[in-house]
Amino acid sequence: TEGHTPGLVLSMDLVGHGELTANGLGPRWGDDSLRWLMVTLGDPPVSVPFVYRALSRGMPSMERSDHRPFTEAGVRSLHLMGRGPDGLYWRYHTGLDDMDQVEPAAMARTLDAVLRLARAPVPGEDGGEPAFAARGAVVPGAVTLGAMGLGALMGLSALFGRLKATALGAAMGVVRALGLGLVWTLVLAVGSLGASTLGERAEPCAAAALAFVILGLTSRRGSRLDGGGATAGALVCLALMVALFRVEPLLALPYGVAAFGLGLSARGGHPGLTALLTLPGPLYLTSGDVWRELRFHGLAPDALAPWGLFVTVVWLPVACWSHDWRGAIRGERVALVVVGVVALVWAWLTPAFSAAMPELTGR
Q1: In whole angstroms, what is the distance from residue 23 CA to residue 25 CA?
Q2: Distance between CA 284 and CA 294 in Å, rounded?
């Protein structure tokens, strides 16, 4: 209504189970307002999954609860939901969604959060910076932008003197990444046999595929690329970072950090530090958790081919970098084979995480 703009709108859905989770933190939420939310909701900290925050900022039109019209009207809005081990509460809108599913402690936590939000003074405006939260701590937007700037600087500087080796590393990395995507697709196919939807087995299949990725990336006996693979991986990261930055800086952040790590590797940096900076992004983006959220929003088709292509792109920088690695010794390779076999058996035998999601399959 004209002249009566809300200072804060709160919607709730799927509460009463699992961990209290904040969703819908779109472009109106920056450093100060996100910090205000973490302090207001107190202890235990509210969960703010990275993928939720990034998608809410970059694609506010994807919000699907009652706060969406207010978000579209430019009002600072917030969506509280419950999130258990399965991720999404898949029983909703089914005959299984009865009072037996309600957890009193989770309901009490939700009530406590609502009262705190209602009593706290509404924060002032901020710049809508690309900040994100982790266990109650807020990482400012300046850190996000600074990390990507350092990644661009380090990644580009590694190119000097390595043009030929970089081109070779990129070409070989593409071939290897395509192979990894194919292996990942086959593992998903094996793990999903007998299941009504591939998403049911996303978590164990991801673990099984990871074992094969590790096996594939340590299969060489040495490298003669002189940092060309790492440089190629850094340049791929920079290309993906620029493409994703246009959608949302938080989506580009993992590749900015990875570009920094790969640039260090090309300059002779320690491989352990490079792995610490480079691997978390691809591991998180191809985890079952992200798979379920992307499927829920209709952004990831429940089919093998698109998922295999997605995995290929996400892991391409690591595949390029792998050409600079030393191959595993015989004992290490035996251990990796055992891990791969165990993971495949686990993917085959583990019950589905969300066996009652028929309403999501047809979306």
Answers
A1: 6
A2: 13
Per-residue pLDDT tens digits for 138-158 = 999 999 999 999 999 998 888
CA distance between the termini of the chain: 34
Residue type (1 letter), 166: T
Closest CA to 170 of 327, 275, 324: 324
- Measured at the CA of 163, the angle between CA 161 and CA 165, to 5 degrees, comes to 100
Q: Are 244 and 172 in contact (CB under 8 A)?
A: no
The Cβ-side half-sphere exposure at 167, using a 13 Å CA radius, reads: 3
pTM higher than 0.90 = no
**Span 16-58, pLDDT tens digits:** 888 899 988 988 899 999 999 999 998 888 989 898 898 888 8
Cis-peptide, bond into residue 351, ω within 30° of zero: no
Task: Using the Cα atoms of residue 260, residue 261, residue 265 and residue 268 in order, give the sign of their dihedral.
Answer: positive
Amino acid at 104: P
